[in-house]
Amino acid sequence: MPDRTGLQIMKEIVYPFPSSACKVYLQASLEAIADIAQGRLIVITDSNVQAAHAAQLAAYTCIVIPAGEQHKHQTTVDHIIAQLIELGADRKTCLVGIGGGVVTDITGYVASIYMRGIPFGFVPTTVLAMVDAALGGKNGIDVGLYKNMVGCFRQPVFILYDTLLLQTLPDAEWINGFAEIIKHACIKDAALFDWLAIHQWQDFKADAALTDELIARNIAIKAAVVLNDEKEAGERKLLNFGHTLGHAIENLYQLPHGHAVSIGMVAACRISEEMHGLASADKDRVVQLLQQYGLPTQLDFDKERAMAILLKDKKQSAGTVQFILLSAIGHAEIVPIGMEQLTHLFEQCL
Ligand code: NAD
Ligand code: ZN
């Protein structure tokens, strides 16, 4: 990504979520966290981000966790808490998660339980965390193979976007992030879908202004949904498009989150075509866009094992899964599907 000097004009948006407001700083610089986070600041990051940005992070007290989804677990929480005690962190300490979605999810969770809750903020460093994970107040960890089984809703005080941090992001992680971006387009924004269709991920990597626009459009979509339904009583469920099956196969096959969601979205489109009136041509356009962005669209998975994990998913109740289906690109609905019918659909469509 080219140097963005000259483009760096910080923009501030305040999202007044029902539980508490979150300040979003766009086109900002990591250094600004010292001014934004009031009081003492302790950074939580992972080993890759620490290695890639050692010079910038040297200014802060850092707790470094091992990188990877397999560490989004209770043992890492225990390790962070032990260090917070050691460092004398108190209720006025602000935890700042600098990293991808694993770091932001775990930082928000630890900050919510340490001393019954201390303030926290995020500096997302992956495309996926910038467009999705950092915003919305869902924090948590995995338990065994079950994704995000333990967690809480609590808003970060701030989210700071410094897209210069993406310069060290591996290409595979750029691609991964586009799964959530395509998800937003599929469920809410046909114009975003068309815009993505005339680009490829490399265009965004090469053009800071385009990346800024991409981030702004995506957080606007997610924030609007969370403003309406912070605790996922209704509309927010739409953001789970591709995630019902996605979560079931993600840890089962150690897939990157974006890959699992991509495969899950294709499955959801096939089911949408079968029972929700999605035009076959629209399903094909979704598959084509995912492929254009380098995302996988099929996986030969063990349907029985996936179904068993799905049964334990927190989004299912009384044997019914709240599946998110498309009626058209940009239009999604919540459709309850019984387990028996779902098993049948899996056999038929996947
Ligand atoms: P991640 O945090 O594992 O990051 C991906 C990889 O990139 C890691 O190896 C990481 O160390 C590395 N990395 C991060 N930033 C880097 C940088 N700037 N330079 C070099 N390497 C860097 O994964 P992710 O894809 O960011 O996030 C996935 C996680 O987010 C999943 O656990 C998912 O459940 C969660 N998530 C949460 C929400 C939410 O609403 N809370 C939404 C979507 C996803
Ligand atoms: Zn996701």
Question: How would you portray this structure in words?
Answer:
Residues 1-7 have low confidence and may be disordered. The protein has helices spanning 33-36, 47-52, 54-57, 74-86, 101-113, 127-133, 171-188, 190-197, 201-206, 208-228, 243-250, 257-275, 280-292, 303-311, 339-349; strands spanning 11-16, 21-26, 41-46, 61-65, 94-99, 120-124, 138-143, 146-153, 158-160, 316-317, 320-328, 331-338. The protein is globular and about 55 Å long. A hairpin with a 4-residue loop joins strand 1 (11-16) and strand 2 (21-26). The protein is an alpha/beta fold. It is built from 15 helices and 12 strands. Helix 6 packs parallel to helix 10 and helix 12 packs antiparallel against helix 13. 46% of the residues lie in helices and 20% in strands. The protein has a 7-stranded mixed beta sheet with strand order 1-2-9-6-5-3-4. It binds nicotinamide-adenine-dinucleotide (NAD) and zinc ion. Zinc ion (ZN) binds next to helix 12.
